[in-house]
Amino acid sequence: MSRTVDERTTTYVAEHAALDPVAATEMGVAGHDHELTDYSPEGYDARLELARAAVRDVVAAEPVDEREAVAREAFLERTRLAIEYDEAGYARSEINVITSPIHELRGAFDLMPTATAEDWEAIGSRLAAVPGALAGLRVTLAEEAARGRVSAARQYAAVATQLERWTGQTGSGSVFVDLVARGVADGTVPGAMAGGLERSAVAATRAMADLGLFLSDEMEPRGRRTEAVGREHYALASRMHLGSTVDLEETYAWGWAELARIEDDMRATAARITPQATGPDAIDVAVAHLDADPARRIEGREEFRAWMQQLADRAVAELADVHFDIPEPVRRIECCLAPTNDGGIYYSGPSEDFSRPGRMWWSVPEGIDTFHPWRETTTVFHEGVPGHHLQVGQTAYRAELLNRWQRTMCWVPGHGEGWALYAERLMDELGYLEDPADRLGMLDGQGFRAARVVVDIGMHLELEVPADNPFGFHPGERWTPELGYAFMRQHSRDDDATLRFEVDRYLGWPGQAPAYKLGERTWLEARAAARRRHGDAFDLKAFHRAALDLGSLGLDPLVAALDRI
Prior knowledge:
Layout: H1 4-19, H2 21-27, H3 41-60, H4 66-87, H5 101-110, H6 117-146, H7 153-166, H8 175-186, H9 191-219, H10 231-242, H11 248-273, H12 282-292, E1 298-299, H13 301-319, E2 333-337, E3 345-348, E4 358-362, E5 370-371, H14 373-383, H15 388-397, H16 404-408, H17 413-429, H18 436-461, H19 481-490, H20 496-508, H21 515-534, H22 540-548, H23 555-562
Helix pairs in contact: 1-2, 1-3, 3-4, 4-10, 5-6, 6-9, 7-9, 8-9, 11-12, 11-18, 13-14, 14-17, 14-18, 17-21, 18-19, 18-21, 19-20
């Protein structure tokens, strides 16, 4: 019997890759690295119609078994939501400080191989296409603005500032020029190609700089002065990120309670580090003590990258075949320093054939050369194994269980980020955070994600701060970006620049920040339900294997599928 769902969604991957070469590079689909995505209105129209046609065909397809039924449900849920988001006017108009066509285009170059002349030919072709791609994006943004579809003014201004850094107008480097310069310096760029590549890099840099001026001079004045997106937009964005419809008020209240629970745990953990410190500042005292300890510092970016790699490799070696079934190709992960200085940590998955491994990237802000591993041990587990690298790598590997669309294109933040946050807590359960400093680092990250739930929903829905909130924080006032920053400052140990970036991120990417904690909650509840169903026969390793073998799913389809395991 023909597997029509698998066949049609596999065809969709190839069709989509041809229309979105940047996405193809990110997905690890070969054959399009020399091309760039068309960000003009016509390019968006073509991708939208492609998605509509695929949905029609998959609706008509009959799954032949449970596995294909799960795949069909996942495809329809994800693709219908993407269509709805585009039709509502958000997909083409949203510009923010962390994800946009600009960020995707720039990031694609990080994933391209640079070892051979053929690799550099592809890079050269793609660099030469940057001015045209950005010109198309300018047309799209202007047309959407004429329809009243714009991002907040703050987002245009902030991205324009990022582009100044990326193009060398501020800071110490220019991403495209530096990319070619590294290839020339290490000898991978053939001498005959160097001049052309350098000219294309300069032209691409100039196009990026011009786009920055367009954002600041033309789009920022047209941007929304009110940064809250409102309930209708937020509810749709939340469904996009979660694959579930949640009660926003209930979730908001849960975020307050979850943050209070975590901070109670943080104080108890801090007492193990600095027993003499009690009272409301006990956490800060413990943090200051750890940061002042020279034995808990690493000096130098490359030294820090090497520490990340060592810890990531150790986790793979010790967890494989004991707590997780880790396929051989997934046992390789690369830890990298990103070419940008925006701040943040992220993961990029392997190519389909695993010739490009999964990678953990650290974008280190300008001027930072001292690092505190106790803060980041849990981050390595989040981005590596058993977090994103295991999850994404196992999905990419399971060709006998998952179709090509599931392996390459399907990503649900609630599922993925929820799993990675669950993985941090799991490593605590498995004894990898026995050092109270490492555990405090994990809890600090957990608290940060819980605070996001409160701030993200509160700011975008402009809710009231509860009069009886557990922290006595501005009771009865309505959320504003300024209150959002003050709340994050009160509940985080990060520097001001990082926190301001984070608040800008929430304002520009509604609904994404809560996905971490809400996804983790779903994973924990699903595990507890499986324990109840199976009793003494429950096998945690088998549960993880079966759950990850489902691939990425919206949270509602995930729960339904896990209930059948």
